[in-house]
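Bug #77: duplicate submission created two jobs. Keeping one. Sequence:
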Amino acid sequence: MPTTCEIEFENNPLKVVYAGQLLRVALRLNLTKQKKVRGVYFQLYGSACASWTEYEWFGGLHSNRWKIYNGNEEYLNKVSYFVGPVVGDVSRKAARILRKSTRKFKLAPGAYKYNFECTLPPDLATSIEAKHGHIRYFARFVVDIIYPCRKIYEVPFFVIRPFDLNLNPILRSPIIAESTEKYPMKIVVRTPVRAFAPGQMINVEIYVNNQSKQSIAELSIELIRGITYCQSKNSNIRKLERISIVRTKTQGCEKYQDRTFLVDIPVPPIPPTDFSTSNIVKVRYCMRIVGFIDSMLCHHEDPTLEFPITIGTYPIRDDMKINNNDLYSKWDDELEINDQPTYEETLEAYGATDDNFRPKYPMFKHATSYSYRNTIESTIL
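Kept job's structure:
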């Protein structure tokens, strides 16, 4: 029977942790025969990686080429030895030296249990999977056998950097945006707040004033995720990727008419807006509304409106009141039952690329009083 190992996140079968949280892991090792080892250790590791290709044009047929760009950044590398020349946490440099050590330690057959705990750094970037890059975290239990080779047992876990939307009072104000077309066809959009969390509905009120000679056949409403990949912190070499996360359509507006539409866009399990934590993978979101003109003879472009929107990990509370002393109110550490999130895997449609790395994000599905359905009439802007 081969050597086996179990890595269990205590009271956390989903393996979802928050940056700054205390993490406890139970490790179980079963040996069927004696082993000579350099050491037995546990490692938490996390990093960002980006890779993409671009075609470089130099003006000559034989001088043009595809060039590969790569970016990497490490966020977490914590090693703790259970068996070895030293026991306990070691630095990265010490860990490299210990892995090259020639000292031997004998492990008798049997079952071993080790416990590990640490407080994660508060500035860890959220786990994310995308087409040209990712941010991933692993828990590794290593039995460094001298012969024939090391035994590495590895499981992924998912980190969420908390982004509480209540901490910025500006996000509680509504969005009002207007298209900039010069001809007599105008789209005005309003949302009740500027930020939402996964599981909520983005309530979009769209007012269309069409005083042109062409009819608008339909409106397209999209939630778009923009990811910027970078080589390094100060590099100017970047790549922008835009993905339509959710898209829906409504009826259009006849010529010389005006109409108002109320549209709900569900926020699926997606990572929060974050353009500062990682230097390699940066995430932003926007809403895009397009009115498709019902005429092939029209020389005008379809009226388009695009505006930024923020996605967080905890929604704006109904009872949040501004405190003049610290700019925002505090709330109880114990969340109400209705405020407890569920955790759902992101899907391929939202950027996931590998079945083994499907990050889970908190989902909040309770109703809010600032929803347009409860707070405004379906008339004007």
